[in-house]
Design brief:
This protein is of the alpha/beta class and 519 residues long. Among the domains are: 141 residues, Rossmann fold; 106 residues, Nitrogenase molybdenum iron protein domain (Rossmann fold); 33 residues, no CATH class. It contains 22 helices and 17 strands. The strands form four sheets. A six-stranded mixed β-sheet has the order 1-12-11-10-13-14, with helices on both faces. A five-stranded parallel β-sheet has the order 5-4-2-3-17, with helices on both faces. Helix 18 links the parallel strand 13 and strand 14.
């Protein structure tokens, strides 16, 4: 077994089987790290908790809902504004965050009265919003607050509201993936089938497992609509609470992120007989194959092919321009869950990048199986790495760029390595044909940025004389590869930087950030 032990983790022998290097002839029987296990004490994991997985990943993208966290204010603040889940209702779900602000006295005497007061005040503050989700946290789960009973009291008292309760305390699973499961099952148990939707087409789907990061969902929904398909609900990017209550009337569940939302698709199959079809919205070839798979289910192959031909003719030349300049650049693919395997092969095949490492903080064995199977020999796969292991990997592999989140990305920049935000994107959306070109442009601009090259200069030994600091002369002497840098106006990308605006003829303003603390 090709296990890899980090020097910084030699004192934690349990970490020995959480990283592997794919060698010549290695397959999944001999090259697979342990995954989705309880965090090893002392490793200082950077994982999210189950509460985070339920609220931050899946619940919060619902656009017309008051998302109330029942617990300390730090829980809700930590799961707010770190991803760009935009919506077409002026980004209501991004503007505000809500918490019952549980203190020590509530832990002693109970916090149910505090919860009810907060719920009533929140509905009063936003009279146009009649839907609420309450998320359990560790503190209030441990003291045994009966959230369901309080929710029923408020519903009976107000009459015209509907409330969803998600019991997903942070300790509810090894990682945030445990929260994905909990909210999936809670939603189908409590809400699916409680509203009868309006059917307007002979071809009806639920689009599941996409969270509208900078407009991803809207790009895919536009393709489906052009094919003549009604998207009954989106779970949960730009999703409406009541539309999601009608998921049981779809003819097909089209699943994007199998890590976060396969659970509800599987239950919809068991309870309502709705089949599941997995797709991939990233990359020209995977996207084209995915649209055709959905089309074949409904007999709409001609409509799908027309979209594929039109979009490919428009955007493929521009992708090729970037791929020629990205070829051979080394990348660490450290994005989290499904992107580990959504991106592993296609960025090599269509952009020419060399994936030297993949990792996941909460991926299951299935995620690593698919990710490692799509990686080339020599790739380092890591389960639940901590910061020290990430630094050691970067110093050893010497990647040109990393696709990851903000926290490990900022560490990478300190080491002189560029990064792109794989979770919330830099200039998304990245799904769709145009989106994939936008992703390539972001990679290109990151790699060839003159500022990035200057940032790598060590000025710690620069001499200082009486006339002042000599940094300016030092910078002027730097040999920047100007031939590799093309002015933006000469780059081939001619999109409008916001295909979502093009879909709706409506812009998404920057949200005003407000913390709503009702006491």
């Amino acid at each position: 077994m090709p296990y890899h032990t980090f020097k910084c983790s030699e004192c934690i022998p349990e970490r020995a089987k959480h990283a592997v290097i794919k060698g010549p002839g290695e397959d999944l029987t001999s090259c697979l790290p342990l995954g989705y296990l309880n965090t090893i004490p002392g490793t200082i994991s950077e994982r999210g908790c189950a509460y985070c997985g339920a609220k931050h990943v899946i619940g919060a993208p619902m656009k017309d809902v008051i998302h109330m966290s029942h617990g300390p204010v730090g829980c809700t603040y930590d799961t707010w504004q770190t991803k760009r889940y935009i919506s077409d209702n002026d980004n209501f779900q991004l503007k505000y965050t809500y918490a019952t602000d549980v203190k020590e006295k509530h832990i002693i005497f109970g916090a149910e009265k505090q919860l009810k007061q907060n719920m009533l005040e929140a509905f009063k503050a936003f009279p146009d919003i009649k839907r609420m989700t309450i998320y359990q946290t560790c503190a209030t789960a441990l003291i045994g607050d009966d959230i369901e009973a309080v929710a029923q009291e408020v519903t009976d008292e107000l009459g015209d509201v509907d409330i969803f309760v998600c019991n997903s305390p942070g300790f509810g699973g090894p990682s945030q993936s445990g929260g994905h499961h909990k909210i999936n099952i809670a939603w189908i148990n409590q809400k699916v089938g409680t509203v009868e939707p309006k059917i307007t087409s002979d071809h009806v789907i639920n689009y599941v497992g996409d969270y509208n990061i900078q407009g991803d969902t809207e790009v895919m929904v536009d393709y489906f609509k052009r094919m003549g398909i009604q998207v009954l609900s989106t779970f949960t990017g730009n999703g409406s609470y009541d539309e999601l209550r009608g998921m049981h009337r779809a003819q097909l569940n089209v699943l994007e992120c199998a890590r976060s939302s396969e659970y509800i698709c599987n239950e919809l199959k068991v309870r309502y007989g709705i089949p599941r079809l997995d797709i991939d919205g990233f990359g020209f070839k995977p996207l084209a194959e995915s649209l055709m798979k959905v089309a074949m289910f409904f007999g709409l192959e001609k409509e799908a092919q027309a979209i594929i031909d039109e979009e490919t003719a428009r955007w493929k030349p521009e992708l090729d321009w970037y791929a020629k300049r990205l070829k051979g650049k080394k990348v660490c693919l450290w994005p989290g869950g499904s992107k580990l395997w959504h991106w592993a092969h296609v960025i090599e095949e269509e952009m020419g990048l060399d994936v030297v490492s993949v990792y996941s903080k909460f991926g299951h064995q299935g995620d690593f199986e698919k990710g490692i199977a799509r990686c080339s020999e020599g790739a380092l796969a890591i389960d639940d790495p901590n910061e020290l292991e990430g630094i050691e990997a970067m110093k050893t592999l010497k990647p040109d760029i990393i696709f990851t989140g903000v926290r490990p990305g900022e560490v990478a920049k300190k080491l002189g390595i560029q990064y792109l935000n794989a979770h919330a994107y830099h200039n998304g959306p990245y799904k769709g044909f145009e989106g994939w070109v936008r992703f390539a442009r972001d990679i290109y601009n990151a790699l060839y940025s003159p500022i990035h090259q200057l940032a790598s200069i060590d000025i710690s030994q620069t001499e200082v004389d009486g006339s002042g600091f000599s940094t300016r002369q030092l910078i002027s002497d730097v040999n920047i590869d100007k031939t590799a840098i093309t002015p933006p106006e000469e780059q081939p990308y001619t999109g409008d930087y916001d295909c979502v605006t093009k879909l709706r003829d409506k812009t998404y303003p920057e949200p005003s950030h407000k913390l709503v603390k009702v006491v």
